[in-house]
Design a protein that fits this description.
single chain, alpha+beta, Alpha-Beta Plaits, 2 domains, two-stranded antiparallel sheet, two-stranded antiparallel ribbon
Length: about 150
Protein backbone atom coordinates (compact mmCIF):
# COMPACT_ATOMS: atom_id res chain seq x y z
CA UNK A 1 0.00 0.00 0.00
CA UNK A 2 1.19 3.49 -0.77
CA UNK A 3 1.85 5.57 2.32
CA UNK A 4 3.21 8.99 3.14
CA UNK A 5 6.84 8.99 4.21
CA UNK A 6 8.90 11.93 5.45
CA UNK A 7 12.55 12.51 4.63
CA UNK A 8 13.51 14.58 7.66
CA UNK A 9 16.82 15.66 6.18
CA UNK A 10 14.92 17.53 3.45
CA UNK A 11 12.16 19.09 5.60
CA UNK A 12 12.52 22.87 5.79
CA UNK A 13 10.02 23.27 8.61
CA UNK A 14 7.93 25.62 6.46
CA UNK A 15 4.60 24.10 7.65
CA UNK A 16 3.20 24.42 4.11
CA UNK A 17 2.02 20.80 4.31
CA UNK A 18 -0.24 21.77 7.21
CA UNK A 19 -1.89 24.53 5.17
CA UNK A 20 -2.22 22.34 2.09
CA UNK A 21 -3.82 19.60 4.19
CA UNK A 22 -6.27 22.00 5.81
CA UNK A 23 -7.14 23.43 2.40
CA UNK A 24 -7.57 20.02 0.76
CA UNK A 25 -9.99 18.99 3.50
CA UNK A 26 -11.90 22.30 3.60
CA UNK A 27 -14.19 21.44 0.70
CA UNK A 28 -13.47 24.81 -0.89
CA UNK A 29 -11.72 25.66 -4.16
CA UNK A 30 -10.12 28.96 -3.11
CA UNK A 31 -7.32 28.62 -0.54
CA UNK A 32 -7.53 32.24 0.60
CA UNK A 33 -11.26 31.99 1.27
CA UNK A 34 -10.84 28.62 2.94
CA UNK A 35 -8.01 29.56 5.33
CA UNK A 36 -7.54 33.33 5.63
CA UNK A 37 -8.06 34.48 9.19
CA UNK A 38 -8.99 30.99 10.38
CA UNK A 39 -7.31 28.62 12.77
CA UNK A 40 -6.35 25.53 10.78
CA UNK A 41 -6.77 21.93 11.90
CA UNK A 42 -4.69 19.82 9.51
CA UNK A 43 -4.38 16.06 9.60
CA UNK A 44 -0.59 16.41 9.43
CA UNK A 45 1.63 18.57 11.59
CA UNK A 46 5.25 19.59 11.57
CA UNK A 47 7.32 19.15 14.70
CA UNK A 48 10.27 21.49 15.00
CA UNK A 49 13.25 19.82 16.64
CA UNK A 50 15.94 21.51 18.71
CA UNK A 51 18.80 20.79 16.30
CA UNK A 52 17.20 22.34 13.24
CA UNK A 53 15.54 19.03 12.41
CA UNK A 54 11.91 19.23 11.33
CA UNK A 55 9.59 16.37 10.54
CA UNK A 56 5.98 15.92 9.57
CA UNK A 57 3.82 13.73 11.81
CA UNK A 58 1.03 11.86 10.09
CA UNK A 59 -0.81 8.56 10.25
CA UNK A 60 1.39 5.60 9.33
CA UNK A 61 -1.59 3.35 8.46
CA UNK A 62 -0.08 0.58 10.57
CA UNK A 63 -0.47 -3.05 9.54
CA UNK A 64 -1.80 -3.87 13.04
CA UNK A 65 -3.20 -0.51 14.18
CA UNK A 66 -3.64 -0.24 17.94
CA UNK A 67 -5.98 2.71 17.38
CA UNK A 68 -8.46 0.45 15.56
CA UNK A 69 -8.25 -2.22 18.25
CA UNK A 70 -8.77 0.33 21.03
CA UNK A 71 -11.71 2.23 19.50
CA UNK A 72 -14.67 1.52 21.78
CA UNK A 73 -17.22 2.79 19.24
CA UNK A 74 -15.90 1.00 16.16
CA UNK A 75 -15.33 4.34 14.44
CA UNK A 76 -11.84 3.40 13.28
CA UNK A 77 -11.37 0.65 10.74
CA UNK A 78 -8.81 -0.64 8.30
CA UNK A 79 -9.78 -0.87 4.65
CA UNK A 80 -8.91 -3.83 2.42
CA UNK A 81 -5.98 -1.90 0.97
CA UNK A 82 -4.64 -1.09 4.47
CA UNK A 83 -5.75 2.48 5.04
CA UNK A 84 -6.94 3.35 8.54
CA UNK A 85 -10.05 5.51 8.35
CA UNK A 86 -12.45 7.23 10.75
CA UNK A 87 -16.23 7.17 10.55
CA UNK A 88 -16.91 10.44 12.38
CA UNK A 89 -20.60 9.58 12.72
CA UNK A 90 -19.61 6.68 15.00
CA UNK A 91 -16.90 8.52 16.96
CA UNK A 92 -17.99 9.25 20.55
CA UNK A 93 -15.07 11.55 21.29
CA UNK A 94 -13.42 9.42 23.97
CA UNK A 95 -10.04 10.02 22.26
CA UNK A 96 -8.63 6.66 23.31
CA UNK A 97 -7.16 6.49 19.80
CA UNK A 98 -5.32 9.78 20.45
CA UNK A 99 -3.81 8.31 23.60
CA UNK A 100 -2.71 4.99 22.11
CA UNK A 101 -1.30 6.15 18.76
CA UNK A 102 2.47 5.65 19.10
CA UNK A 103 3.11 8.37 16.50
CA UNK A 104 0.83 11.09 17.83
CA UNK A 105 -0.91 11.16 14.46
CA UNK A 106 -4.53 11.23 15.66
CA UNK A 107 -5.93 14.41 17.15
CA UNK A 108 -9.26 15.97 18.11
CA UNK A 109 -11.05 17.74 15.26
CA UNK A 110 -11.72 21.48 15.18
CA UNK A 111 -14.85 21.11 17.32
CA UNK A 112 -13.21 18.72 19.79
CA UNK A 113 -16.06 16.24 19.33
CA UNK A 114 -14.41 13.60 17.15
CA UNK A 115 -10.98 12.34 16.17
CA UNK A 116 -9.26 13.25 12.93
CA UNK A 117 -6.27 11.84 11.11
CA UNK A 118 -4.70 11.61 7.68
CA UNK A 119 -6.77 9.57 5.25
CA UNK A 120 -4.42 10.16 2.30
CA UNK A 121 -6.77 12.74 0.74
CA UNK A 122 -9.24 9.98 -0.19
CA UNK A 123 -12.20 12.10 0.97
CA UNK A 124 -11.39 15.01 -1.31
CA UNK A 125 -10.62 15.47 -5.00
CA UNK A 126 -6.84 15.91 -4.82
CA UNK A 127 -5.90 12.54 -6.31
CA UNK A 128 -2.73 12.26 -4.28
CA UNK A 129 -2.12 13.66 -0.80
CA UNK A 130 -2.02 17.45 -1.05
CA UNK A 131 0.88 17.68 1.42
CA UNK A 132 2.99 15.57 -0.95
CA UNK A 133 1.93 17.43 -4.06
CA UNK A 134 2.89 20.83 -2.64
CA UNK A 135 5.98 20.11 -0.52
CA UNK A 136 8.55 22.57 -1.93
CA UNK A 137 11.55 20.42 -1.06
CA UNK A 138 9.99 17.01 -1.77
CA UNK A 139 10.52 16.02 1.85
CA UNK A 140 7.14 14.30 1.91
CA UNK A 141 6.64 11.43 -0.53
CA UNK A 142 3.77 9.07 -1.31
CA UNK A 143 5.06 5.64 -2.27
CA UNK A 144 4.86 1.92 -1.70
CA UNK A 145 7.95 0.66 0.08
CA UNK A 146 6.78 -2.92 0.23
Amino acid sequence: MKRIYVNEQWCLGCHLCEYECAFANSGMTDMAKALKGKEIHPNIRVEDGTDGIHFAVNCRHCSDPICVRSCIAGALSRTEDGMVQIDKSKCVGCFTCVLVCPYGAIMPDADGHAAQKCELCTRNLCGEPNCVKHCPNRAIVYEDRG
